[in-house]
UniProtKB/TrEMBL annotation:
Source taxon at top rank: Eukaryota
Pfam family, one: SNF
Statement: the UniProt record of this protein carries the keyword Glycoprotein: no
Protein name: Transporter
Membrane association type: Multi-pass membrane protein
UniProt keyword annotations, A-Z: Membrane, Metal-binding, Sodium, Symport, Transmembrane, Transmembrane helix, Transport
Species this chain originates from: Oryzias sinensis (Chinese medaka)
Length: 673
């Protein structure tokens, strides 16, 4: 008997896409340098969520305690799964469809689900890039257009919606979005945002038109520039009054949050999305690496950079929020002292008379005012209020509220505000673009690997995908478009991606086998990763993902999905429930993204039954679905693998798949999933 260890079921069943198309290893594009690849992976994994989601979660969930929980989950779940995707893509040298189809044809639906989710994310992510372009274009004027409320000429006074909220809120909701009062009021298209969205898709298309060769050049700037800006903002922020209050608030640990299940769910979800697991982009990028690349070191390095970026962004956010909170509290003190001066003029009996200097409000500290207020509040009436710095800090904002309202408000107070504003939104633009490149690569690479026709027309596929993304993205440029962005962000990717990663883990840990997977990695790295990965993949990661899926489903079932709407009349945000048609849309998005997994399984089962019903003469002497218990020469096998030679019967395809290994004297009888 020949050594069947050299022919795992992945090799026996592998080899072609649905159109018989497989790129040869020699023709496959490759990174020009290691730094190019690292920048691409870092650029994809480090995105807008690191800047506006992670700081908010720290803010709301115990500060330093949440960071410790995040590090714990990153080490036992995030890094192992990230390493798994890197190793799979690098060894098989295919996109997400080809990788999971190679392991077992019944799992090819995993790759298609990843592509669908990537497309969902690309649709709304580019809208955020369009918003950044809009704000960047409005930053080159002084004063900034969101610094003061505009004048209503009909009443010769300030616009009511602006005076009832704030200049930054008014500019965001009325000037930028021109938003409706709810998702049920669609409104007409916003022409300015439509133009910005077209520009965003044009940038993505031009940057990716030549594949990784063109996008990698852009990565040198788009991946590095945000770090330069973050460090500049950190240095500038540390010089602001209130910066240390913000940092203290950020790091102060509240360990009681560890007993809250929802905090664990939020931490696990953030780890999951921060590393970009399940999108297929990590697999796509690693597939362009040489087989001998140390992907284990890459997994540790990128994960560490990602976490440190989140901490850096949190420092920047909290020093800015600390300055904003202190400025607001001092303004509150000054207003109240002005009211006290009026009160003194109208009252003869003044037992509440303060000990501080009322003629110079700027000299009154917040602690001094609060101490006086706590003693005499019963004499003051409702017009004089408390000025609590901590309450201002507790007004945490996330997402678009942080970037387009809180930060714009602070930057308007800086000397040279146009410079700081343009720098900030240029940073957001680059963060968004580097993530968009990875997201689009998660769509294009699997399709080109699996379909020869698409692979031969890379440019046309890229331009067509971007054009389709723009046309569907017009949904988000309506006046109600922001509500659909929120819907896609909250629901279109979370559950499908968790399902995808669960099946990825099952396919590697239980279908292909962790021992065989570690054998393949040993061939690549020339050393064997710690055995702890075997148990993390088989049990810890899988159980964590199943738990996250269950928690997310239960939350959706028991808490009706809601969204935050802007009410023009009250000039305030309100929480509304999604209407029935919107709930149906949410369910459709989730189902459509998850369906390829069962469809791929059913299709493969039916196809295998059909093949068994009509056996071919060539297949009569060869068992396609089993590996026999047999002896083999491990030395010869390892030697052949080191040259990556394809099996003789697959030589026509020149495929490099999971590296076959037979480093034990006995191969266990194995049945394909």
């Amino acid at each position: 008997l020949k050594c069947v260890g050299a022919q795992s079921e992945t090799q026996l069943t592998a080899a072609t896409g649905s159109n018989g198309a497989e790129d040869s290893a020699a023709d496959r594009p490759a990174w020009d340098s290691k730094i190019q690849y690292v920048l691409a992976q870092v650029g994809f994994s480090v995105g807008l969520g690191n800047v506006w989601r992670f700081p908010y979660l720290c803010h709301q969930n115990g500060g330093g305690a949440f960071m410790l929980l995040y590090i714990f989950l990153l080490l036992i779940v995030g890094v192992p799964l990230f390493f798994m995707e890197l190793a799979a893509g690098q060894s098989i040298r295919q996109g997400s469809i080809g990788v999971w189809k190679h392991i077992s044809p019944k799992l090819e639906g995993i790759g298609y689900s990843s592509c669908v989710v990537c497309f969902y994310v690309a649709l709304y992510y580019n809208v955020i890039i369009a918003w950044s372009l809009f704000y960047l274009g409005n930053s080159f004027q002084y004063p900034l257009p969101w610094h003061h409320c505009p004048t209503d000429l009909t009443i010769n006074g300030t616009v009511k919606e602006c005076s009832s909220s704030s200049p930054t809120s008014y500019f965001w909701f009325r000037k930028a979005l021109n938003i409706t009062n709810s998702i049920e009021e669609s409104g007409e298209f916003n022409p300015i945002m439509t133009g910005c969205l077209l520009a965003a898709w044009a940038i993505v298309s031009l940057a990716m038109i030549k594949g990784i060769k063109s996008s990698a050049r852009v990565m040198y700037f788009s991946s590095v520039f945000p770090y330069v800006v973050l460090f500049i903002f950190l240095i500038r922020g540390l010089l602001l009054d209130g910066a240390m209050d913000g940092i203290t608030y950020m790091f102060y640990p509240r360990l009681e949050i560890w007993g809250n299940v929802q905090v664990w769910r939020q931490a696990a979800t953030q780890v999951f999305f921060a590393l970009g697991l399940g999108y297929g982009s990590v697999i796509a990028y690693s597939s362009y690496n040489p087989v001998q690349n140390n992907c284990h070191r890459d997994a540790l390095m990128v994960s560490c950079i990602n976490f440190m970026t989140s901490v850096l962004a949190s420092l920047v956010v909290f020093v800015v929020l600390g300055f904003r909170a202190k400025t607001t509290a001092l303004h509150c003190v000054a207003e109240n002292i002005g009211l006290l001066n009026l009160k003194m003029a109208n009252e003869s009996h003044q037992p509440w008379l303060p000990h501080f200097n009322m003629t110079d409000p700027s000299s009154v500290s917040i602690p001094a005012y609060r101490e006086w207020y706590s003693q005499y509040r019963s004499f003051l009436g409702p017009t004089i209020t408390d000025c609590n710095l901590e309450e201002e800090m507790n007004k945490g904002v996330e997402g678009t509220g942080l970037a387009f309202i809180a930060f714009t408000e602070v930057m308007a107070l800086f000397p040279g505000s146009p410079f700081w504003s343009s720098l900030f939104f240029l940073m957001l633009l680059n963060l968004g673009l580097s993530t968009m490149f990875g997201t689009m690569q998660g769509i294009l690479t699997p399709l080109m690997d699996n379909f020869s026709l698409l692979g031969r027309h890379r440019t046309l596929l890229t331009v067509s995908s971007c054009a389709l993304g723009f046309l569907i993205g017009l949904l988000f440029t309506q006046r109600s478009g922001n509500y659909f962005v929120t819907m896609f962000d909250d629901y279109s990717a979370t559950l499908p991606l968790v399902i995808v990663v669960i099946f990825e883990t099952i396919s590697v840990a239980w279908v292909y086998g962790t021992d065989r997977f570690l054998d393949d990695i040993e061939i690549m790295l020339k050393w064997r990763p710690p055995v702890v990965y075997k148990y993390l993949w088989k049990y810890v990661c899988l159980l964590a993902m199943v738990g996250l899926l269950a928690a997310s489903l239960l939350r959706m079932i028991f808490k009706r999905p809601t969204y935050t709407a802007w009410n023009q009349q009250t000039a305030s945000e309100t929480t509304l429930e999604y209407p029935s048609w919107a709930l149906a849309m949410i369910i459709s998005l989730i189902v459509f993204a998850s369906l390829p997994v069962p469809i791929g399984y059913i299709r493969s089962v039916l196809k295998s039954r059909s093949m068994r019903a009509t056996p071919s003469p060539e297949g009569a002497g060869r068992e396609m679905h089993r590996e026999l218990y047999t002896h083999c020469n491990s030395t010869d096998q390892l030697e052949s693998n080191s040259h990556h030679a394809p099996p003789q019967e697959d030589a026509g395809h020149h495929r490099i798949g999971f590296l076959p290994v037979c480093n034990e004297h006995l191969n266990i009888f194995h049945v394909v999933f």
